[in-house]
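Input set for joint prediction.
Command: fold jointly, output tokens.
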Amino acid sequence: MKNIFKTSYLIILLLVGTNQVIAAEKVELLKTDWSFKGLFGKFDRGSLQRGYQVYTEVCASCHSMKYVSYRNLFEPGGPEFSEDQAKAIAANFEVTDGPNSDGEMFTRSAKLSDKFVMPFANVKAAQAANGGAYPPDMSVLAKARSGGVDYIYSVLLGYENPPSGVILDDGVYYNKYMYGNNIKMSEPLSEGLVEYSDGTIASKEQMAKDVTTFLMWTAEPHLEARHKMGFKAILYLIILTILVYFSMKKIWSRIESEV
Amino acid sequence: MSDHEYVPKSKFGKWFNDRLPLLTLASHLTDYPTPKNLNYWWTFGGILSFCLIIQIVTGLTLAMHYIAHADLAFESVEHIMRDVNYGWLIRYVHANGASMFFLAVYIHIFRSLFYGSYKSPREIIWIIGIIIYLLMMAAAFMGYVLPWGQMSFWGATVITNLFSAIPLVGEGIVNWLWGGYSVDNPTLTRFFTLHYLIPFLILGLVVLHIWALHIPGNNNPVGIDVKKPSKDTVPFHPYIVIKDAFALLMFMIVFAFFVFYSPNILGHADNYIEANPMVTPAHIVPEWYLLPFYAILRSVPDKLMGVVAMLSAILILAALPWLDTSKIRSAVFRPLYKQFYWILLADVLILGYVGAMPAEGLYLLIARVATAYYFIHFLMILPILGFKEKTIPLPLSITEPVLGGFPNAAIVKRKESLD
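tokens >
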């Protein structure tokens, strides 16, 4: 009996071991402290607002975010801009609406209820402007890559000169963390690229962290509500479980048997 | 405790019950004599009923907001996640609920394997169970296609393509399944329809499963027949109800942990990328609960034989009551079977593990050995073991296993307290 356990244990160890060896060939992702991880994880409001700034000033010229609305910017659990700020942000963009009563399409400035305006009309237009590569929509990007936020953070900071012997095509860049190490996006961040209004120094790491936090929020806009509800739900379940346990003991004590 | 002589107290109750004996049924269900030595592995039947109800209720709600169209499905899921009130909660419960459902069903199946619950007179319960399990896999697979992410699309492509292995008519069948020449909108709408239908078929089969169970009554950890009702049994209510409730709550805590704190850990990141027929993901893997069968499929070099092996791996279970020739049910009294039971469990876990890995080199070799062993276990070891094994003497009853002081009483006691 014990031998069997030992053998199966050894087999599992062996498998885990081989996996480790293979995993070791992969590059370890960069780590940073994410405020939204853990049981009580919450977004850092300031980081989300700065992240929005990085997104809108840097990423948004190529990357769309088609599932996020301007109203989300002031809703609880997000960057929590004021409603007026969100309105002002929306007003910077133009959308095509219509047809009006004359049957004509017209442009107007965006409203809170509009989705983020896309930089290109469609995928083909985006590809044409970016050397054939489609800059992926960023709405759920943080959930759409294995490694999640750590991966995105690492790619943003992973630009390097290619190792000797690696020859890159035109318009392709070397990135330590990208799958296959080839990326068609040029390095998006550089020191002091944006000017943060709250006085935070716009280092590359800071911008990468802020924009990644922002991407986590756009991918999981209800993350804070989920964490809050989860804590209450699990606490409730634990208390109820304890109560039911004692009820069970009491009921079963009527018969001479162990539960 | 008897379930046949029930007479309602009120006049109306009697009038109603004479015409439709619902009260007799309720009385039977509450009084149902259950062996009192059932351990916590027996609580997974109730847990599975809970899982089914949760999937149906959350599924109905999701269907009110979901749009089964190739151009809109992905977007409608994002709409549920962002704009529907508590849509994120409903979807995460449904998605993780599928995993929890399979976790529970695997424990339920392996409990049955350990205690020989599939043996006479419970073969029909077991076979209905296998059909339920097959339908669960179909429902889960089609459900995974609905969000129309990359894994949805390519998973659907790989699995439906398996049918092309059938000689002569294979290609035709695949086109018929797709409703076209590739996985596309017609495939999505029919998968949605079937995904909506299957849970109700499962519900019907669950009723039959429980009905068939209530004829011979529960098996138990000792595996001997109980006289019912007697000192060996307790009425289902309140004894088993409260115990099931306690176990269910423990299960729900685990469930809640997944839903609230790692809702995507059991899914695949690629499924948050909208389906794109032009881009194939690097590794196409099914959900974790299908991995052992995926490993069996890939371990056979020939496509047709791979499909046959995979299907046989499931269908062989239906023949289990006759493949296992031993008359002794519980592994507690079968020292050799017990060892092989643990090896089989390890074997299935290994298959699951290599199923998630690329089918090459060492992984492929391990998958082949494990696949071969899986079939050897059912086709050779079990039939032979029934004749060769020297079993431990059975106790006379579950209440008094020590009566007469037979030598292995201590083992039984220890086993029971362990469980």
